[in-house]
Structure formats: structure tokens, C-alpha cells
Specification:
The complex is a heterodimer of chains A (453) and B (442).
Chain A lengths: L6 H5 L25 H9 L6 E5 L2 H5 L19 E2 L4 H6 L2 H15 L4 E5 L1 H5 L4 H12 L3 E4 L8 H16 L12 E7 L5 H11 L3 E7 L4 H5 L6 E4 L2 H15 L3 E3 L5 H15 L2 H29 L3 E5 L4 H11 L3 E6 L5 H10 L5 E3 L3 H11 L4 E4 L4 H6 L4 E3 L10 H17 L2 H6 L13
Parallel strand pairs in A: 1-2, 1-3, 3-4, 5-6, 5-7, 7-8, 9-10, 9-12, 10-11, 12-13
Chain B lengths: L2 E3 L5 E2 L6 H10 L4 E6 L3 H14 L6 E2 L4 H5 L2 H16 L3 E6 L1 H5 L4 H12 L5 E6 L7 H20 L8 E9 L5 H12 L4 E4 L25 H6 L3 E7 L4 H11 L3 E4 L5 H15 L5 H21 L3 E5 L2 H14 L2 E7 L4 H4 L5 E3 L2 H7 L5 E4 L4 H7 L2 E4 L17 H29 L2
Parallel strand pairs in B: 1-13, 3-4, 3-5, 5-6, 7-8, 7-9, 9-10, 11-12, 11-14, 12-13, 14-15
Classes of the chains: A alpha/beta (453), B alpha/beta (442).
The structure holds iron/sulfur cluster (SF4).
Iron/sulfur cluster sits at the interface of chains A and B.
Chain lengths: 453, 442
């Protein structure tokens, strides 16, 4: 069998600019955490809301994963359907290509989606199904794009899956359509998945500044807007770790300049909007952005005052991946919170560099080790709160550590100026909750040994 | 009755949950245990995330983290590495290796690898066993029961008992099926012990996934049945299994040790509870505790009050096989029309039901159950229930739209009452909403 991960990709660093930096680390047996590449590919593509997403493999890959993301839709919901070829023992012995073809036909006939994404999984990759050929044939016959996503779980980490999904977009989607209106002044957002509706806050800001959002890649996207992404004048990469490669290739293929930015924190948000206007090279727009960001920042700093008072000097441990590992630090700093520990497990060398630029010297880096390591840091550094992903939420609860969820499953949007206010409120609310006192005081009948934390 | 299947090439909104998740769940009910999924990262990460979301508890699980080339060349090297890491770092009492479809298709022989590993390391004192749970067969239920069976086998081996046991006739081993919540298992333990028996549940998620506050984090399971109790359970005078899928592990105990067993296929409703309590009464000679006599009356009164609400009502249920059977019996007692019964895979227990059962997905549930007033199933059904305009009653796995569902009780009189009231309330609210909207739209 031919390896799916070709050498060039193998050599490439995880979303890093520097060609020499470390490749995605091999997960350690018995100590590994986190999803597979198939998971990563889905995270990237599922927010294309009107498309059908068909998982080719035994049912569990799809059965265990559908409806697990907090990526919101403003309309169509077909991407929330779980489609699986649900291969049985027999299919695996005799091959599942016929079933795949029939499944594609069935979905096209019944749901009439604008496109179908087909994901390979470990088993279908292992038995050497020719998914590309089936998709190509179906696409020609049905007259709709059927996009193969070759990212079976065992080729590597979630991050690699993000990138392989980006490759699929570049190879099969981007450049296959034209915008309806003359919209040459547009910007694409790459790697923003509309978790908890964050995209909507960002979109509002861009609209206010008069910047056209041409293609959303992929938060709350419609298939066709991605087909014309090559017509943008600039790309903003929101989650660099995942889709920087896509931006780079769009630069070399279509000459679209890109920048990496974030919407966590007022400063980062202002910088990102400015950068867009700059790349669009429009004086009037730059002035508009300046006026808007000044107004928003002023209003925000007024609204934040009561929260800042409470949050000043509080200590947090932040454990999240990629771009958030540094961009959230900026947001927390603006609130007066000191980050005393930060996870670097899923950060590229550049992310680590950016973290270093933003934290003080005695901040502890947590490169790996999972839950127990994070908790150790929280305790040793006497942190007031832990900010991490849902996976660690209940671990924190067991230790009675205030917790704010920052990853995909969360329900609150923290991007932009409004988002920072929401984050401040969330942090205050969770630290001020009466449960911490109640939980740490013993029952009246065993008062002797009080265990104050 | 035969089990039917709609013909459709693709699964749309799957009901089926991979077997391996069932295996991981079973391991959570043992103290200081670690399931090691022999597969790629995702095969442990997905179930971990899903179980965490359902139980709102940290879930213990590790992976052999296979990558492409490992699968093709030497998957067991990874497994060995994983075992080394887990053993040296966490010293678990129990390790269960869960083979996936990946190791199955690649033909990896980890069974004999484990054997030699145990020999070489001179591993004694703990339990280590392996199961094969590819996701293209069975579902959560079979994964759970196969794992318990392997666990029982390993216990018997470990204890080295050959006929000479000290049978403790006051001790009963409970084998609770995968569909029972921690709250259910707790209730069953309580009911059985109220007749004067010592009870050991195998596995026991009621002390691990029920929301305890043991401080100190451990990557191993917290709570659950400890190994010495598990070994002690071999002396039990009787095994009681809940759910037909648990009959096989019960039979193992019977074949190896001669322990008699009793299987309760249904666990919900008046009749099922009567049967259980009467059985316990007869084997113990102890009168049924007064609180259950009260509860029985409470239930009957509740059913009388509720029957207006259930008259002319129809329901669909999409659940794992044993659960489906149980729920169906409860619906029978309420006189609710069963528009569609859908399950994840065929088992003898559903095949012998007097009703039509479909093996299918949640899309089939929508089609076959169209017009139903009540949808009973996991949180994946919320959207479908909305589309067909049915009230939604969360049951089975996974549930993420409710707090504390893991403490819900469906067994015994109390459980039947809780469910009857809950379903009745949902229908009442739905009726009120309909009334309101029809007034508004006049
Ligand atoms: S690792 Fe492979 S088999 Fe496991 S969930 Fe991911 S794609 Fe599916």
C-alpha cells in the first residue's frame, strides 16, 4: 500500500514557516491524548454547513463523532447529519467501493446537497479502497462535486488532519467557482470555525469597517463561497497551526497575501482589522477601521472597568492548542490576569515564540503530561482559575478548581471586543461562584480536619 | 417476530455506537483500572470525549497510538510500549486491552503477545486481559458484555479455583447490563441487599461514574469495584444478570464454578419489578421490605393518575437491544402505542420480542415513527424528534442535553414511577404548547 502521507508533507513542520522546525511529534503509546487525523479533517470541513459529510468506514468513526462540535450554523444544517457507509465484516472482505458509490448516489438523490465530502478512515485506507476514483466517477455522473478527503486516523494527529483537509479544499474546491457579485475587495478568513457563533461577532466588525468577508473557511460557510475564495485580495489566517499551509499555497498559486492574526483580546482584534485594511490597500477603509477600533476600544475599556477591578492580579493556567495558546494570553493580560502556566503541547515553534513574547519569565511551560501535569502547575503556582478544553473540565471539577472552557465544545463566544467582555464576565462568574466555598467546607459532623485550599 | 431492516446503502444519523466504547465503559466500573485501546489515537479519543460528555466525569482510557506504518509492520511494538508506560507510571490493578477493527483487519495477534508479556514480566496480582471489539460488529451493548465476560474469565483463571470454593450463599454477584445508569446500578444493589444479601456488582459504575468527589486526580479509574471484591465475588452463591446480553458472563461463572444464575431480561415497569422482588423474597425467605410495598402502591397510583395522559398516545424508541426490550415492556404497561422500535443490531433477545423491531438508524426512526407523540432515545435524536414534532425523552447513550441523567433511575418501582411522570409531563407540556399555538393562529 502506498503511504498516504507523502514525504514532502512529512518533512513539513506543523504549520510552521521555518522549514527546519520539528515535524508533528509521533504520539506516544500509553501516553497519548487527542484525536486522530480523521477528526482533524472533520473539524476543518464540517462547518461547511450545506454540504453532506459522508464517512467511509465502520460506523464508529462517524457514530462516535457526529454532533460533537460547537460550530454553529445560521441556516442549513445538513452538515449536522451523520452519514456513514457503516461497513460490515463482509464489506471489508469484498471491498466497500460499491457501497460507497451507492451511498453517494443515495445522499445526492435524497438531500440534493451542493457538494459531498467523503472521508476515508483507517480501515478503508488499510484495505486500499480507491476513494478518489469512486468520488471522481460519482462527481461526473451526478454533476455535483464529490470531494475525497484522504485523512484516515492513523496517518497522524488532529493537526495533520486539518492540513489534509486544507489540501482537499485547495485541490478540489477553491478556484472552481466565481463570486456572484463583483467583490474583489474581499478578505477570506481561514481557520475560523464559528465556535459558539464567534464568526458572527467578527463578521459584524468587518461589516462595520466596510470590509467584505468573501469566503469563510470554514465557520458557518456555504459550499459555493469557498469555490471562489481565490478571488480574495487578502487572507487572514485565524488558526495558524491548522491551515497556514493553505494560505501559503494560495499565495503562491493565486498571489493572495496573507497574515496571521487573532480576535482574542482588543489589541489583537484591532491589529487584525487594521492589517486587513492595510492589505486591501484602501486609505478610506483604513480611516474607517481606525475610527471603529478606537470607538470600540473606548467603549470596551469603560464596560470592562468593574471586571478588571476584580480580575486584577488573578492567576490563570492556560492549556489549549495552537494559536489560542498565545492569543488568549493577550486577552487575559488585557483583563489584568497573569498567566502563570501555559500548555505548549500543541504549539508550533512560532507559537511558543509568541507565547514567550507575551508572558513573564517565570511562567511555566507545560509541554506534555496531560491532566496531572496541569493540575500540578495550578497548585504549585496557586492559580485562581484553569482555562482549557472540555476534556479537562471535569478533571478540574474533581479538584475544585474554577474552570473556563476555551475549546470547541464551549457555548460562549470570546472573539472580538464583545467577546472579551463576555470572557471577563465568565471568568468573574466562575471564580465568584459560591460552590467553591461550599465544596471546600466539611460536613458539620466532621469538622475537625478542615481542608482549606 | 422477526427483526426487519430498511434497505438503504448508507447509515443516516447512526444509532450504533462502536463496540469498543462499550468495552471502555465496562472498565470504568472497576477500581484502579485502565482500558488500553489497541488502535489509532482517534479510537480512544472519540469514546473518551463522548463518555466524558455523557457522564460529566473524567474517563480513564489509553491508546497504543498506532500509526499507518505500525499497523502494517508491527502493531504489537506499540502495544508493548503502551503497556510499559501504563504499568510503570500508574500501576493499575486491572488492564483491559481492547482490540479495534484496525487490529482486526490487519490481523494483529495481541492475545498471544499479551500472554508472553505477562510471562516475561512475571505479572501476577493484577488482572490483564484482552478482547476483540471491532466496530463493524455489534454495538455498545455487545462490547460491554464481551468485556465483562473476558473479565470474569480472567478472574477465574487468576483465582485458580477448581471446584473447591467456599460458597457464600448470602452473597450475590450482580451483572448489570450496559444500559443501566449509575443510578440504576445503585438502586439494584440496594434492592438486592435489602433482602439481607451481600452484593458485589461486576462492573460497578455506581461508585465510579455517579459523581463522587474523591479528591486528587488519577488517570486511572476512581471508584468502581476493587479487585479483591471482584475475586471475592467468585464465592457468591448466585449470579443475577440484568439484560439478556449479560447472560453469557453469567454462564461463564456457572460453567466454571457451578454458580447458579438468574437473568432478568426486562428491568422496567411494574411487572419487571414484581418479578425481581418476588424472586428475592423467595430465595431469601425475607418478606419484601415495607418501603417497596409503599413504592408499589405509589407506582400504581401514579399510573392511574397518568393514564389520561397516555391514552391514545404513540411513541417510538431507538435504543440498544436490551434497553429497547425493557422500555417496550414499560410502554406496554402504560398502554402506549409503539409506533416504531429501532435498535442498533440484532440480538436473540430482540428477535424473540412480540413486537416488530427494526435494526436501523435515527433516520429510520424518523420515517417509521413519523406521527409519534414521544421520541425515546439518546440526545442524537433531538433534531429528529423536532422534525417529526414528537416530545423528546432522553434515554440511553449519549445524553448531553440534561444534567444528572446518569443518576436517573429506571429500575424498580421508583424507576418506573420516575419515567412515567417524566414522560407524562413531557406530553402534558407538548399538549399545552399545541393548544397555545392553535389559539394564537386562529
Ligand atoms: S483512528 Fe481511524 S478508526 Fe479510529 S476513529 Fe480515527 S479514523 Fe476511525
Amino acid at each position: 500500500m502506498e503511504p498516504i502521507r507523502k514525504e514532502e508533507i512529512d518533512d513539513q513542520a506543523c504549520g510552521s514557516l521555518a522549514p527546519k522546525s520539528k515535524p508533528c511529534p509521533r504520539p506516544k503509546p500509553g501516553e497519548a491524548a487527542g484525536g486522530c487525523s480523521f477528526d482533524g479533517a472533520q473539524i476543518t470541513l464540517l462547518p461547511i454547513m450545506d454540504a453532506a459529510h459522508l464517512v467511509h468506514g465502520p460506523v464508529a468513526c462517524a457514530g462516535n463523532s457526529w454532533e460533537s462540535r460547537g460550530s454553529l450554523s445560521s441556516g442549513p444544517s445538513l452538515s449536522q447529519y451523520g452519514f456513514a457507509t457503516d461497513l460490515s465484516n463482509n464489506d471489508i472482505i469484498f471491498g466497500g467501493e460499491k457501497k460507497l458509490k451507492d451511498s453517494i448516489d443515495y445522499i445526492a438523490g435524497r438531500f440534493a446537497p451542493p457538494a459531498i465530502f467523503v472521508y476515508s478512515t483507517c480501515v478503508t485506507a488499510l484495505i486500499g479502497e480507491d476513494m478518489d476514483a469512486v468520488c471522481k466517477e460519482a462527481s461526473g455522473r451526478l454533476g455535483i462535486p464529490v470531494v475525497p478527503v484522504n485523512s484516515p486516523g492513523f496517518v497522524g494527529s488532529k493537526n495533520l488532519g486539518n492540513r489534509l483537509a486544507g489540501d482537499a479544499l485547495l485541490q478540489y474546491v477553491i478556484g472552481t467557482g466565481e463570486p456572484e457579485l463583483e467583490a474583489s475587495m474581499g478578505v477570506n478568513l481561514i481557520g475560523e470555525y464559528n465556535i459558539a457563533g464567534e464568526m458572527w461577532d467578527i463578521e459584524k466588525l468587518m461589516n462595520q469597517a466596510g470590509i467584505t468577508l468573501l469566503s469563510r473557511i470554514t465557520g458557518d460557510a456555504r459550499y459555493k463561497e469557498i469555490t471562489w475564495a481565490h478571488r480574495a485580495k487578502a487572507n487572514m489566517v485565524v488558526c495558524s497551526r491548522a491551515l497556514l499551509g493553505l494560505a501559503k499555497q494560495m499565495e503562491s498559486k493565486y498571489g493572495i497575501p496573507y497574515f496571521e492574526g487573532s480576535f482574542y483580546g482588543a489589541k489583537e482584534t484591532t491589529y487584525s482589522l487594521r492589517q486587513m485594511a492595510f492589505l486591501l490597500n484602501d486609505r478610506e477603509m483604513e480611516r474607517r477601521v481606525d475610527r471603529l477600533t478606537e470607538r470600540e476600544e473606548n467603549r470596551l475599556s469603560h464596560d470592562l472597568r468593574p471586571y478588571r477591578k476584580i480580575l486584577k492580579g488573578k492567576k490563570a493556567v492556560l492549556y489549549t492548542g495552537g494559536v489560542k495558546s498565545w492569543s488568549v494570553i493577550s486577552a487575559l493580560k488585557e483583563l489584568g490576569i497573569q498567566v502563570v502556566g501555559v500548555g505548549t503541547n500543541k504549539s508550533s515553534d512560532e507559537d511558543v515564540q509568541r507565547i514567550a513574547d507575551r508572558v513573564s519569565d517565570d511562567t511555566e511551560y507545560i509541554p506534555e503530561g496531560g491532566a496531572s501535569r496541569i493540575i500540578k502547575t495550578v497548585k504549585e503556582r496557586k492559580a485562581d482559575i484553569m482555562i482549557a478544553g472540555g476534556r479537562n473540565m471535569y478533571v478540574a471539577m474533581k479538584e475544585q478548581i474554577p474552570f473556563v472552557d476555551i475549546n470547541q465544545e464551549r457555548h460562549k463566544a470570546y472573539a472580538g471586543y464583545e467577546g472579551l467582555l463576555r470572557l471577563a464576565k465568565e471568568l468573574v462568574d466562575s471564580m465568584a461562584n459560591p460552590i467553591w466555598k461550599l465544596a471546600s467546607s466539611p460536613a458539620p459532623w466532621d469538622k475537625e480536619g478542615s481542608y482549606d485550599r | 417476530m422477526t427483526v426487519k431492516k430498511r434497505s438503504k446503502p448508507v447509515s443516516v444519523n447512526p444509532l450504533k455506537i462502536g463496540q469498543s466504547l462499550g468495552g471502555i465503559l465496562a472498565m470504568q466500573g472497576c477500581y484502579r483500572a485502565m482500558p488500553v485501546v489497541h488502535g489509532s489515537q482517534g479510537c480512544s479519543a472519540f469514546p473518551k470525549a463522548l463518555l466524558t460528555r455523557h457522564f460529566r466525569e473524567p474517563i480513564a482510557v489509553q491508546t497504543s497510538a498506532l500509526q499507518e506504518m505500525d499497523v502494517i509492520f508491527d502493531a504489537n511494538r506499540n502495544l508493548e510500549e503502551a503497556l510499559n508506560a501504563v504499568l510503570s507510571k500508574h500501576r493499575p490493578d486491572i488492564i483491559g486491552i481492547i482490540g479495534t477493527e484496525l487490529t482486526d483487519v490487519a490481523g494483529v495477534d495481541y492475545q498471544s503477545m499479551l500472554k508472553s508479556y505477562k510471562r516475561e514480566r512475571n505479572m501476577r496480582g493484577g488482572l490483564a486481559f484482552s478482547v476483540t471489539l471491532p466496530d463493524f460488529r455489534g454495538s455498545l451493548e455487545s462490547g460491554f458484555s464481551v468485556t465483562v465476560e473476558a473479565m470474569v474469565d480472567e478472574l477465574i483463571q487468576q483465582a485458580g479455583l477448581r471446584g473447591q470454593r467456599n460458597v457464600n450463599s448470602r452473597q450475590i454477584t450482580l451483572l448489570p447490563g450496559s444500559y443501566l445508569t449509575p443510578g440504576d446500578v445503585m438502586e439494584l444493589k440496594e434492592i438486592v441487599s435489602s433482602f439481607g444479601f451481600e452484593v458485589i456488582a461486576l462492573p460497578d459504575i455506581s461508585t465510579s461514574l455517579s459523581g463522587h468527589l474523591l479528591t486528587g486526580f488519577s488517570p486511572l479509574t476512581r471508584g468502581g469495584v476493587p479487585l479483591d471484591s471482584m475475586l471475592q465475588s467468585l464465592q457468591s452463591g448466585l449470579t443475577i444478570a440484568f439484560g439478556a446480553s449479560m447472560e453469557r458472563p453469567a454462564r461463564r461463572l456457572h460453567n466454571a464454578l457451578g454458580t447458579p444464575y438468574k437473568v432478568f431480561q426486562g428491568t422496567m415497569g411494574l411487572k419487571a419489578s414484581d418479578e425481581l422482588l418476588n424472586f428475592l423474597h423467595q430465595i431469601s425467605g425475607v418478606p419484601v421490605p415495607i418501603r417497596y410495598c409503599w413504592q408499589r402502591e405509589n407506582l400504581l397510583d401514579c399510573m392511574l393518575d397518568a393514564h389520561f395522559q397516555f391514552a391514545g398516545v404513540s411513541a417510538l424508541a431507538a435504543l440498544e437491544p436490551d434497553h429497547l426490550r425493557s422500555v417496550s415492556e414499560w410502554l406496554d404497561e402504560l398502554g402506549v402505542e409503539q409506533k416504531a422500535l429501532i435498535t442498533s443490531y440484532e440480538t436473540p433477545a430482540v428477535a424473540e420480542m412480540e413486537r416488530e423491531v427494526w435494526v436501523g438508524d435515527l433516520d429510520d426512526a424518523e420515517v417509521l415513527g413519523s406521527g409519534a407523540d414521544l421520541w425515546i432515545g439518546s440526545s442524537h435524536g433531538i433534531a429528529g424528534a423536532e422534525r417529526i414534532g414528537a416530545a423528546f425523552l432522553a434515554a440511553g447513550f449519549p445524553i448531553w442535553n440534561e444534567l444528572g441523567s446518569y443518576m436517573n433511575v429506571s429500575v424498580g418501582y421508583r424507576g418506573a414511577m420516575e419515567w412515567t411522570n417524566k414522560a407524562g409531563n413531557l406530553l402534558m407540556r407538548r399538549e399545552a404548547e399545541h393548544r397555545e399555538s392553535s389559539i394564537r393562529h386562529r
